[in-house]
Amino acid sequence: MIAGVFCVLILLFEKYSFKEREAFSLQNQINKSVDVLKQLIIRDGLGQTEQALDLTASVHAGQFRKNKKGKAIPAVIHPVTVALHAAALSFSEDELLAAALLHDALEDSTLHELPGSFSLGVREAVDTLTYRGRGKADTSAMLAYYHAVAQNRGTALIKALDRCHNLATMSEGFTASQQKTYIKETEHYVLPMMAGAEKHFEDLKRPFWLVRYQMASVMRTAADDLTGDVLTEMNH
């Protein structure tokens, strides 16, 4: 079952990456994704995940993903996708899925911390995943952030899946120069974080192989397309 879900998610992932999702309703995609999560919640009794799903819907209500064509893509699709990819890779622990759903909650809202009704594990994971220096090019802060992320199996997986999904969709919201910067950041920080984490957590090796393959494919395609775009930006 998990393998089948994973194949379906990868197909959706690829379609989303290459702007072929016009054939189906985006809202229907979100609804179906949420339904899959709800089925997992009911089947496995995932109380933290259920609470996280409600909070992420509230936190991201009215927020949209960056899009150069003006399409209104609800921001909630991102954390839901990250959580589903974790589950599809057989990482379906309650705290991990809850943290995946809430990994952007503190950065994208006025919340400073999660409610005390969440377990300590969820609260610590989300705190670790929250980058406090957003918008600042601080190498030491970035290194410290990714070092902390690599120390925990769940946060390392969530960050890898987060970056993978953002890479796959970056062409829709980033300028060419922003995409190049994002790729460099991935190479300098995210890939080394993954390499470090899998040395300590054996069960991350297989999913990280799959994530690296997807990242490499996206970055190669982007690199081929970006050179001319960056020159065009510089001339305007």
Automatic annotation (TrEMBL):
SUPFAM superfamilies: HD-domain/PDEase-like (SSF109604)
GO molecular function annotations of the record: guanosine-3',5'-bis(diphosphate) 3'-diphosphatase activity
Protein name: HD domain protein
Biological source species: Pseudoramibacter alactolyticus ATCC 23263
